[in-house]
Amino acid sequence: MNSLKTTQQPVKNDKRQVIINAASESFLENGYQNTSMETISSKAGVAKQTLYNYFGNKDALFIAVVDQKCDCHNNATMRSNVIKSENVEDILKKYAQNKLADLVSAESTAMFRMMISEAIRFPNLGEMFFAAGLEKDRLLLVGFLTLQNQAGNLTIDDPEQAALFFQGALNAYFRPKFIMTGETPSKEAIQQHIDYCIEKFLILYRPT
Length: 208
Prior knowledge:
- The chain is an all-alpha fold.
- Helices cover 78% and strands 0% of the residues.
- It has helices at 2-30, 37-44, 48-55, 58-69, 75-78, 88-103, 106-121, 123-151, 159-171, 174-181, 187-205.
- It starts with a helix and ends with a helix.
């Protein structure tokens, strides 16, 4: 019986991923309002009831799409409380690289643009997008900074403000330019900006 469950689980996960991929494409192509569960089920090649079995409703499916797109690859590392002082810079660098790669991603930018237009008509959709994306990302950084302050690796009087400060420095230029001009910055320019932000951040918060 256990071996049967083991062989079936990947199939279940694969179908869930197929649905999320289809929903993501549909939302970006048509917007949230004009995307129906029928459209998604057709694109995914599954019965509409299957969508409801996995996600319950369109809102839940939308959250799953955003949650996956905003998932930070270093979650486990950033939540660790055993990071040494000399590792803090490397962790911040990985976090910043992931964040800026997302900020100048064509797919993420398309989702962001779609949300700007949809949030006016669907305020709750904007709230869901913010909670599953930007807020989740912010809280991850706040948690990391709090742990490092407690461990003595950083000296931070207010982790909430420190997180906003760091994210603000990362976000201030590249995303607006990419959204408005479509110009993708070079990897060298992004890395130079990341290195500068981290250097100044650590001047403020690294113990002396």
